[in-house]
Task: structure prediction
Amino acid sequence: MNYLFIYPDFLDATKHVKTIPGNYNEGIASISAVLKQGGHSVCLYHLTYLPEKDEFIRKVKEFSPGMIGFTIRTSVFDYAAAMAGWLDDELPEIYVMAGGYHPSLAPEEVIATRGIDAVCIGEGEFACRDFVDYYEKNACPDKAAQSFWVKDADGAVFRNPIRPFLTDLDALPFPDLDLFDYTNLKSNLTQNTAEVIVSRGCLYSCTYCANAQLRKIYPEHRAYARFRSPENAIQLLERVLERDPSITAFSFNDAILNMYADWFYPFIELYKQRIRRKYTCNLRFDHIDEKMARTLAESGCYLITIGVENGNEEFRKKYLRRVMKNEHIVTLSHLLKKVGILVYAYNIIGLPHETLALTLETIKLNARMYADNVVASLFFPYPTTELRKISEEGGFLDPSVSMHDPVQLRMKNYPRRDILYMRYSFMPLLKKYRKLYAMTDEAARDKKIARLDRRVLSKHRPRGLIGAWRKRTHLFVVFLKRIASKKLPALYKKLRGMRIKKQAASKT
Ligand code: B12
Ligand code: SF4
Result:
């Protein structure tokens, strides 16, 4: 069977920009490895922008697939649905299935889509291989396809049981390293970085994240957060290096690399001995102490991405289910700075029940952390998440709001205009507060901070106007960066590398 993956890998804001490189996708690479092991051939249509129908159909024909599998995240669902419709118009003989986060969380919606014949719920490696084998030998497996909902010719849907998740990740072959064009991935913009993932799932249940619901797909889900054994994970990294010795760094996409300390410490010992490359990973503040920070730095960790999300402890605990003290976050951020690790902090704006004053607290907490980079995303209520439920219960979800509107909630106490103002003022305000927090004269500092707070929160501030202006400036800078990365890739890579080095040097 020649199996074609279609991977819509663009953001709404950049769907027409043809010059942005794509992301590695572990799910696709992993299923591909299993399909290839089963004797099938696999190809990938990596969509980094939204194509026109003619171009799309022409490209699909070039791959001449026997079966197609879409991988779908919620925010690209309606584009993927349009593509499935195009396939139904032009190539109705090809069997089309869909998997990934959105099909797993909202299977009813996906199976009802014209052109989609089956939906995979949860992990897909062996489920997909069995489906393809069966289809090749017999016909559509209908009732025999574990983890699949299958639609027959009359539109009736068979909802098959979910296959238990794989408890031993070492039983998985290594992901297919030939499927993606590594040289053309976003991770390669700064340095030769390979994206890898050595685990599945997460221990926590933050209310905005799909993880908690994905876990519930499985009736028995206690051991859902799993890692490859340290030895097996190291062998995977060695395989990546063997294939491309020019790789200078790894980017671990795992939800929390040190989720289990008794896995992490043995792993990192092997990493220091056999891999000896810089790396970046995702962490949580409540998984870091002095020993961990030093171990990370000594083993080559040069940058961590970490969720702050909101600056108010009570709000974080009540609505996001993240129990962490602000003082702890600030102290650890400074500790990481001391040991030479860059901190990239992630935040969300426009959460249900949030207010302008609460976002200001988020900015101020980030300012006190002196993070090296700060990302402020606008909230999106992903299907089945608890925070979506909270949004519904609060009456904040207006059905007339398009899923492509950057501001999803309609809240009386925090209007759309103010949310956008805070989104685009996040960086300018952060810089101002940072300067103030650096003042040594405490009395003068507190006075100036209080004055700035009053200015930001003032009813008379023309937030609509300032927000619109800052958005323009922001988009212009993004545009310039994009042009630079395309037209002068070597220079862009060098400048980005220099920036990271400079940030790292400023810490010591
Ligand atoms: C690594 C990661 C990233 C990486 C890599 C992205 C990628 N496409 O893999 C980066 C940093 C680039 C990223 C960016 C974003 N991400 Co992200 N990311 C993750 C993370 C932490 C792990 C994903 C992963 O690799 N899992 C492991 C693999 C093996 O699992 P998998 O992908 O689910 O694949 C399995 C099944 O789904 C299934 N399957 C998948 N595809 C298919 C296809 C077929 C045909 C079949 C049969 C089965 C199948 O089988 C696979 C193997 O078992 C998850 C959170 C988490 N803890 O899971 C969020 C997550 C996927 N990201 C999310 C989001 C929202 C984003 C962004 C949109 C954020 C933003 N606003 O910029 C961007 C989108 C970028 C993009 N173009 O895709 C959401 C998606 C929610 C949703 N409902 O769609 C998640 C779930 C986090 C959350 N907020 O809840 N992300
Ligand atoms: S810690 Fe990260 S991956 Fe885990 S549930 Fe929270 S947001 Fe999701």
The first strand starts at residue 2 and ends at 8. Residues 202, 204-206, 209, 211, 255-256, 284, 307 surround iron/sulfur cluster (ligand 2) (CB under 6 Å).
